[in-house]
Amino acid sequence: MPSAQEPLKRVLVTGGAGYIASHVIFALQETRRFKVISIDNHHNSHPKSLQRVAQIARDALPPNASEQDKESTVIDAWTCDLRNREQVRNVFEHYGKDGIWGVIHIAAYKAVGESSEIPLTYYENNVGATISLLQIMSEYDCTRIVYSSSATVYGTPPIIPIPETTRMKADSPYGKTKVMDETIIEDVCSAEPTRWSALSLRYFNPAGAHPSGLIGEDPLGRPMNLLPLLSHMAIGLVKDSKLQVFGQDYPTPDGTCVRDYLHVVDLAKGHLLALDALGPDSHVFDTCPTNARFKAYNLGKGHGMSVLEMVDAMRKATGFDYKYEVIGRRHGDVPELVADPTLARKELGFNAPQDLVTMCRDLWNWQTKNPKGYGGPDEVVPAGATPTLHQL
Ligand code: UD1
């Protein structure tokens, strides 16, 4: 239980307004142990999501909430671009040396296909910005980081379910940025093992939304990923008469690709567990092969669902009569990505208990309550601007 004696720990979340991070912020605020600072340039997110998260947190406060509890629901939301070193330094300077307990680094570009077309943009945004963030963190004695990685680091994995010991061999530039960032963070932990500690979380396929329907996924333009696309089809945002299924000739039970979908609220709680595992009482690093305090965990359910099974689940949730046609394979797709989640369960206490019916129901609840997502144009931070702080 939160105690009035323990001051709030400041945690900075990058990409705070995005789909995953908004749910992570909720998970942090729910504990009333953290003061959340968000950084976002709103490239692919809407500032309204942060107002909504803060609202959920305020609504969840007990009647006898203390002043500190109330303070824990206020987000320091900075409009700021991670590639702009001065802007990021300004944010850290605002809180001073040792003023931020830890960072959850989620901001990144994430479209696999696009990353092959504009690799330099991906390396600059995902790798360059991470290096600069780590340098500024070090300057300000902020040396705990939870990193948002992806199952895509495994490429086509030799063993399913995939254990974390699997070699990393990403196929796309996007996947390679995740491998590079993990490598860089591990090297930083090796160089200064008494200062740095880091956990990398390899997400499988996040799905669903917070059950309130106040926050959810609001992709920029036409969704490329399966679930938001199915949801947009059912609400009429995309006019495609048929879903194009990318290949039915894979070595899987129904021939379509299999993925490990997990509820975004469960995924978000994994970040809280990881953050706590960076604390002084943690034993997760006891089994590290060297004295570098770095470890990676799979966050998945350990169950695979095929594309056709997902279409069927969304049909049940939405009542929409999806039609589909099978077309050729999508470049870069792998037949099966299913986590072995044993390590995260054993060492972090991570679980992803919510089932597919709940994921689809919550996705549809968000979509029907917000047929056009958060709506309105995104506020993008101009290059060279001073970061602006909004307390939400
Ligand atoms: C991909 C990336 C992942 C990235 C995520 C978010 C890989 C292996 N994974 O996940 O790293 O974080 O996107 O951008 O590159 N599908 C169709 N028709 C569609 C859309 C999707 O059949 O119109 C199929 C795909 O072939 C795939 C499944 O649905 O088998 C899920 O696709 P998607 O939602 O895009 O996620 P991933 O490709 O698994």
Summarize the structure in words:
With 392 residues, the protein is α/β, with parallel strands linked by helices. It has one domain: NAD(P)-binding Rossmann-like Domain (Rossmann fold, 3-Layer(aba) Sandwich), CATH 3.40.50. It contains twelve helices and 15 strands. The protein has an eight-stranded mixed β-sheet, with helices on both faces. Strands 12-9-14 form a three-stranded mixed β-sheet. Helix 8 crosses helix 12. The chain is globular, with a radius of gyration of 20 Å. The structure holds uridine-diphosphate-N-acetylglucosamine. The site of uridine-diphosphate-N-acetylglucosamine has 22 residues, from helix 8 and strand 8. The site of uridine-diphosphate-N-acetylglucosamine (UD1) has 22 residues, from helix 8 and strand 8.
Q: Layout of SSEs?
A:
Layout: E1 9-14, H1 19-31, E2 34-40, H2 48-59, H3 67-71, E3 76-79, H4 85-95, E4 102-105, H5 112-117, H6 119-139, E5 144-150, H7 173-191, E6 197-203, E7 205-207, H8 226-235, E8 243-246, E9 258-259, E10 261-263, H9 264-276, E11 294-299, E12 305-306, H10 307-318, E13 324-327, E14 336-337, H11 342-348, H12 356-369, E15 388-391
Parallel strand pairs: 1-2, 1-4, 2-3, 4-5, 5-6, 6-11, 7-10, 8-13, 9-14
Antiparallel strand pairs: 3-15, 9-12
Helix pairs in contact: 1-2, 1-9, 4-6, 6-7, 8-10, 8-12, 10-12
The structure holds uridine-diphosphate-N-acetylglucosamine (UD1).
Uridine-diphosphate-N-acetylglucosamine (UD1) is lined by residues 110-112, 150, 152, 205, 224-226, 229, 243-246, 257, 259, 307, 330, 332-334, 337.
